[in-house]
Write a structure and sequence with these properties.
The protein has helices spanning 4-11, 42-51, 67-84, 99-108, 118-126, 130-152, 160-173, 236-254, 262-275; strands at 27-29, 37-41, 58-61, 90-94, 112-116, 185-188, 209-213, 216-218, 221-223, 226-230, 288-290, 297-301, 318-321, 324-326, 335-337, 340-343, 350-351. By secondary structure, it is of the alpha+beta class. The protein has 2 domains: 4-124, Creatinase/prolidase N-terminal domain (Creatine Amidinohydrolase, Chain A, domain 1), CATH 3.40.350; 127-361, Creatinase/methionine aminopeptidase superfamily (Creatine Amidinohydrolase, Alpha-Beta Complex). The relative contact order is 0.12. The model has no long low-confidence stretch (mean pLDDT 96).
């Protein structure tokens, strides 16, 4: 396994992350009947040996990019580990990796059959344990605070990046590890029509809608929370759009019970938005996604691309549900998203996020 969330899920390694090097820094080898073997960047090895007593075996690996170094890892580290265990033939599941690594495996370990390991890990992480849910609750407490700080700092005359900076200060002050999105999402006015999905130096103006989507990671688990607010007095069109999104979100959440499906949820959201005549203005992206150690993970709600799959909701699934409607040519912007974290239980859905909605925008 090489994806950050899979390595952390299996080993609890909180590693230094270098931009653009995901799947190239740290890995883990999981073999039958054994604890995971940590394959860590040289900078993490001492921490693993002296501070991670649950890791029985750890080996230094290079950044998995330069072909010669990748070959050296395969021949000098991985092959001996597999030989010791009699595992140089059979199936080897890999989640994500550079082509150089795949080619090296095929050259030096030709008796191994490479199979999909990412789907295996997605399914393993699908249903959260009660302990994982408790950690996600804490991540949501931080994410709520980050969102509230951004809302409190949103006013005319400030730039989107200033609001993002205030929110990020709260994130780190409260012990968060990173935002849900690497590029904090603060978009105001026409930047939500269509959504720009990042913060810029645009000045927030009176009558602007402003959307906040930053979230938080804590102890390896993510919270994804989004709110739209208004600077000044909203227009009739802005209130119509916000009300449609809010009612759609509430209708979707109401379906999130065992026995219902992700399609039931999507259908409820779309139908409620359609009651306001805005179904053709839904954002061209899924409406919700699973979340946990992955900031965005299957299963999805409202995905429309080829391969869309219907799943039943099961207790201890966690989702971020985030309908977005945008309408062009609305003064101050006509784009609204509201996003909540939802835990599936044996009964009613449980809202993990608690930031208030914007009553000034509700009809």
């Amino acid at each position: 396994m090489w994806k950050d969330e899979n390595v952390r899920y299996l080993t609890s390694l909180r590693a230094q992350l270098i931009a653009g090097k995901t799947t190239s820094l740290n890995g883990t080898l999981l073999t039958p009947g054994e604890d995971p073997i940590l394959l860590a960047s040289g900078g993490e090895i001492d921490k693993a040996k002296f501070g991670m007593s649950w890791i029985a075996e750890a080996h230094a690996v290079p950044i998995m990019e330069q072909r010669e170094l990748v070959d050296g890892f395969v021949t000098g580290t991985l092959t001996p580990l597999l030989q010791e265990r009699g595992l140089t033939s059979g199936k080897l599941a890999v989640d994500q990796a550079n082509i150089s690594f795949i080619q090296s495996l095929m050259t030096h370990l030709p008796d191994l059959e490479l199979i999909d390991g990412d789907t295996i890990m997605q399914q393993a992480r699908w249903i959260k344990t009660d302990l994982e849910v408790a950690v996600i609750e804490e991540a949501c407490a931080i994410g709520d605070s980050v969102t509230q700080r951004a809302l409190d700092e949103t006013r005319a005359g400030r730039r989107e990046l200033e609001v993002a900076a205030d929110a990020m200060q709260t994130l780190f002050r409260l012990g968060g590890e990173m935002a849900h999105v690497i590029t904090p999402f603060v978009a105001s006015g026409e930047h939500m029509s269509p959504p720009h999905r990042l913060a810029t130096d645009k000045i927030i103006r009176n009558q602007d809608l402003c959307f906040i989507d930053i979230g938080a990671m804590w102890n390896g688990y993510f919270a994804d929370i989004g709110r739209t607010t208004i600077v000044g007095k909203p227009s009739k069109d802005q209130k119509k759009i916000y009300t449609a999104v809010y009612q759609g979100l509430m209708a979707g959440i109401e379906t999130m019970r065992p026995g219902n499906t992700n399609q039931d949820c999507a259908d409820a959201i779309i139908a409620k938005v359609a009651d306001h005549g805005l179904e053709d203005h839904l954002f061209s992206l899924f409406i919700g996604h699973g979340i946990g150690m992955g900031a965005n993970e299957p299963p999805y709600i409202g995905e429309t691309l080829p391969g869309t799959t219907t799943y039943e909701f099961q207790p201890n699934m966690v989702f971020a549900v985030e309908p977005l409607v945008w309408v062009p040519n609305v003064r101050g912007g006509g784009g609204v998203r509201i996003e909540d974290m939802v835990l599936i239980t044996d009964g009613d859905p449980h809202l993990l996020s608690r930031v208030e909605y914007e009553e000034r925008l509700l009809n």
